[in-house]
Amino acid sequence: MGPQSDSFEALAMPLFDQLYNFAHWLTRNREEAEDLVQETYTKALKGFSSFQLGTNFRAWMYRILRNTFLTSRTGLKVTMTVPLDPEEDGPELAIESDTPETILFERANRELLQAAIDELPVYFREILLLCEVEEMSYQEIAETLSIPIGTVMSRLSRARKTLRERLQPQKGSAAIAKGTNRAL
Amino acid sequence: MPCESWKAKLDTYLDGELPSEEMRTFDAHVHSCSSCAADALARVQMKRGIQAAGKRFTPTAEFRRRVQGTIAVKPRYSFPRTWMFAAALSILAVASLLSIYLGAQRSRTAQAYSEIADLHVAALASSSRVDVVSSDRHTVKPWFQGKIPFTFDLPELQNSEFSLVGGRMTYFGQTPGAHLIYAVRKHEISVFIFQEGALRGKWDVSSAVKKELSFNVATWSQGGLRYFVIGDASPADINNLAKLFKATSS
After folding, report:
1. pLDDT per residue over B179-204, tens digit each?
2. What is the pLDDT of residues B105-144, one digit of tens each?
3. Which of 14-53 (B) contact A at CB < 8 A?
4. Cβ within 8 Å of residue B219, ≥6 positions away
5. At a CB cut-off of 8 Å and minimum separation 6, what does A108 contact?
6. Which of A75, A96, A148, A184 has most Cβ atoms within 10 angstroms of its Cβ?
7. For residue B6, which residues of chain A lie inside 8 Å, CB to CB?
8. Yes or no: is domain A100-183 CATH 3.40.50.2300?
9. Taking CB atoms and an 8 Å cutoff, what residues of chain A touch B22?
10. Which residue of A has its CA nearest to B18?
11. Whether A177 contacts chain B with CB within 8 A
């Protein structure tokens, strides 16, 4: 027997803010994000009777949202160069002392990081957000994106590497800021 | 194991996704390797940075309401519930009508007592209090014959404190009735007799003596007639005279 429709509201509404945030990151547009979330909730309510209670509701909702996005006009336009996910990446290089991470930390430049995330291909952007913002486990990410855990690990690794590379050009100016801070 | 091998797994370690045994080994290594510790710290900072930067967009309250409105479960009233509601309404309506009816009844009753008291006072104040002056019940009773549409029995007053003063015709609500006046010590008591049903009001079934407008009054129904005994005598006197009438009529 499927779950009651009144429990859908109780389960789904607490996820509203984070689903909207994720939708906005995917669509990069408020109106489209709203349409996406609205459609996600409508679809989810319609399909709620088939949802198995006890399984991961959050991953189920995110999967609906993502699949809805992928079939949307914007989704089709921006995403469908799905990356070839190698099972294993080569070993990462040692991080230098002035790393993008430390630069960010010192400058506390949220906008810079937001811009860098925004520029990532959507398949990197989404996996990074699911892992870091939604704090999903690899298993949950795998369920949400419908990919194996091995692919989650490799894609996540490449997403982080790409982000770090994109932040790298900022190093010079950041070092200046760092020097200025030290001088102070 | 060289540091490069550790660092390849650093993100997985920081995501807490390594098997527990490997996590412990990694913990030990990070505590002993300054290079890996520095790298781990940098990556933790990056994770925190992404986490903070990622929480960027907030839905409007209006949009939240809109979505909630589309998924909210609409209350569906089942038939029993509708019926219960209808029944509650009916009960309320009946209770209201009953209350209005009882209120009107009480009002009519109070008005009737008031009129009986008026008749009593008016007769006593009149220069000709009675139309038939006689202490003999066999004189008084026949006097009413043909004047009122019913007949009644008068009690035998021997061995009682009461004496019959006389009788007169009276009207209550266009209904003719008998008005008898009795004396007990220095008090005069009126006894009114009407056809039951001619008087509208809710009368006390117990026929106990009650106080109405400072008069003591008892009323009861017997043999299709409505009796009132009213006067400024004590409740015991009123009650005793009532008892005499009841005994005679039964």
Report:
1. 999 998 888 999 999 888 766 666 66
2. 677 777 778 888 888 888 888 777 788 888 888 888 888 8
3. 15, 17, 35, 38-39, 42-43, 45-47, 49-53
4. B203, B204, B207, B226, B227, B228, B229
5. none
6. A75
7. none
8. no
9. none
10. A138
11. no
Count the neighbouring beta carbons within 10 Å of the beta carbon of residue B83: 11
Short-list B176, B203, B205, B214, CA closest to B192: B176
Beta bridge partners of B182: B164, B189
Q: Collapsing DSSP states into helix, strand and coil, what is residue A3?
A: coil
- Which candidate from B47, B51, B67 shows the least CB-CB separation from A16? B67
Supply the pTM of this predicted model.
0.53
Nearest to B57 among A20, A102, A128 (CB): A20
CATH architecture of A5-79: Orthogonal Bundle (1.10)
Residue A114 and residue A120 in contact, taking contact as beta carbons nearer than 8 Å: no
Residue B230: φ, ψ to 5°: -140, 145
Nearest-angstrom CA–CA distance, A138 and B13: 12
In chain A, domain spans: 5-79, 100-183
By residue count, chain A amounts to 184
- Rounded (10°) angle between helices A57-71 and A5-12: 80
Pairing label, strands B187-195, B210-212: unpaired
ipTM of the complex as predicted: 0.77
